[in-house]
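Thread amino acids onto this structure.
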């Protein structure tokens, strides 16, 4: 058993080992997570969470590293969470990222962690918010969340962030076409990285055109800016931060930040509840209550919907401990 109170106290002081252990408890879906989350809850809510998504190789890690440098210069404590939804192991795919992040390795004001989520009950949507909470409680003022490799979870990651940054680069497939219509709905800030390459202006123009289509914005609505960067040389990074600051201020002014966080919390509760229900229903195989209902459905004295209602009522009535 882990001394949760002690770990949380140490994490709160920003001790990296304690933060690492707590995130490992999340990753390993530890039975003590319930206790951890209860201890963390009053310490959270201070962090600004920025998600970075985009096709493999577009420059997410390079941009993240440059953003860390800029935020550190501004005196902010920064957390970086690299999430790998395709792997059950943290480490492997992230080796390159470690190299890219190595300049921050000895900075006590930066906490960098990779996390694998495949194979977990509830996966990314379940694990990421809890890891974010650990970093938040540890005093990170800004948390940058990067999805590694495959872009399949872009939308899921965007749902975890206060502000979503979508990165594109020239010459990657068919420009925006390749970037799927989906990204046009999730980006709060767009970055055309690798602006040192041919085609960056064309990509930005095309993106601008696509963003202008379809939506008739009201005055005062957020119009996602497009920022060109050369992340490898830290060019344009200050403009990205400026765009993030503006978006955050706009969200606060309009109550959007609170609404987003509320939606996020609702999604999190739903995920935990569904996971708990699923595991209790799993436990019911061979249970007398289920067998009795099954008999009645099989002989036609009860319909399956009514049986399911009865089953659920029974599950929620007995106050089991859940997942
Ligand atoms: N020319 C150029 N290359 C860049 C720039 N930014 C990043 N790169 C290079 O692009 C490659 C991929 O960069 P990463 O930051 O690892 O990209 P990523 O999006 O994190 O990649 P995955 O995590 O694998 O999805 C590396 O070789 C970088 O050095 C840039 O602005 N210009
Ligand atoms: Mg990366």
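Threaded sequence (323 positions):
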């Amino acid at each position: 058993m882990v001394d949760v109170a002690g770990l949380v106290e140490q994490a709160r002081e920003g001790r990296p080992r304690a933060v690492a252990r707590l995130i490992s408890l999340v990753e390993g879906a530890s039975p003590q997570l319930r206790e951890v989350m209860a201890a963390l809850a009053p310490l959270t809510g201070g962090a600004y969470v920025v998600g970075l998504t985009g096709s493999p190789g577009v420059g997410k890690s390079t941009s993240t590293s440059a953003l860390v440098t800029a935020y550190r210069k501004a005196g902010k404590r920064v957390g970086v969470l690299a999430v790998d939804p395709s792997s059950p192991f943290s480490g492997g795919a992230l080796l390159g990222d470690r190299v890219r992040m190595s300049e921050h390795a000895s900075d006590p004001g930066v906490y960098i962690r990779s996390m694998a989520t495949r194979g977990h009950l509830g996966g990314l949507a379940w694990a990421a918010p809890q890891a974010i909470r650990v970093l938040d409680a540890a005093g990170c003022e800004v948390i940058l969340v990067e999805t590694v490799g495959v872009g399949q979870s872009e939308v899921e990651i965007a749902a975890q962030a206060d502000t979503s940054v979508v990165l594109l680069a020239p010459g990657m497939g068919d420009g925006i076409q390749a970037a799927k219509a989906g990204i046009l709905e999730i980006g709060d800030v767009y970055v055309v990285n690798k602006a040192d390459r041919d085609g960056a202006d064309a990509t930005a123009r095309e993106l601008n055109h696509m963003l202008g289509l379809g939506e008739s914005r009201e005055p005062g609505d957020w119009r996602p800016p497009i920022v060109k960067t050369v992340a490898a040389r830290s060019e344009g990074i200050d403009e990205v931060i400026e765009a993030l600051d503006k978006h955050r201020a706009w969200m606060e002014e309009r109550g959007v930040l609170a609404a987003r966080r509320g939606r996020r919390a609702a999604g999190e509760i739903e995920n935990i509840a569904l996971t708990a229900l699923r595991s209790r229903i799993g436990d019911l195989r061979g249970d007398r209550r289920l067998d009795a209902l099954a008999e009645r459905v099989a002989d036609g004295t009860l319909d399956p919907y009514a049986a399911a209602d009865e089953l659920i009522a029974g599950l929620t009535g007995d106050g089991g401990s859940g997942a």
